[in-house]
Amino acid sequence: MRPPPPPPPPSPPPVEPSLSENKWGPYSSAREFVANIAIVLIVPIAAILAFFFFFALVGFLLRRLRRHHKLLKNPAVDVPPAILFSPATKMAGADAGCGICLSEFTDGDRVRVLPACAHGFHVTCVDAWLASRPSCPTCCAAIVAAAAAANPPEP
Ligand SMILES: [Zn+2]
Ligand SMILES: [Zn+2]
């Protein structure tokens, strides 16, 4: 019976130059020094880019939201006030009903009567329409504020 082979001698620990001998100061090598500089430069640049990206994104979302409600807030578009429909309500083609959803008006419906052509529509129906184009859904008459119509822009 042979004795077991002796264990291999432990490998010597890697030699690291002490800080005082290293010309790269606290960095162990030139490569680590460059990597450190790169991190110091890249992190703020990435932070600034993320900052601008964030504000661009917020601005984009706000613009989209505003565009959706622009016409109702646009002073150049005179959205008529909502009124409650009654048989006495004067509007063009009232017996035909709302030109958007094609249902007849009933007493108490909230409607808007467009000033240019007197066509009337449900508030919910016409607001969705007016959010995208300032004209009558039935006859395409433009809906502009009286001030803008009185002083048309020079051609
Ligand atoms: Zn309607
Ligand atoms: Zn009309």
UniProtKB/TrEMBL annotation:
Query: Where in the cell does this protein reside?
Result: Membrane
Domain of life where this protein originates: Eukaryota
Q: Where is the RING-type domain?
A: 98-139
From the UniProt entry, list the residue stretches annotated as the region Disordered.
1-20
Q: What Gene Ontology cellular component terms go with this record?
A: membrane
Keywords tagged on the record: Membrane, Metal-binding, Transferase, Transmembrane, Transmembrane helix, Zinc, Zinc-finger
Q: Where is the composition biased (Pro residues)?
A: 1-16
Please indicate if the UniProt record lists Zinc-finger as a keyword. Answer: yes
One Gene Ontology molecular-function label: zinc ion binding
Q: Which Pfam families match?
A: zf-RING_2 (PF13639)
Matching entries from SUPFAM superfamilies are given as: RING/U-box (SSF57850)
Topology with regard to the membrane? Single-pass membrane protein
Q: Which family does it belong to?
A: Belongs to the RING-type zinc finger family. ATL subfamily.
Q: By what name is this protein known?
A: RING-type domain-containing protein
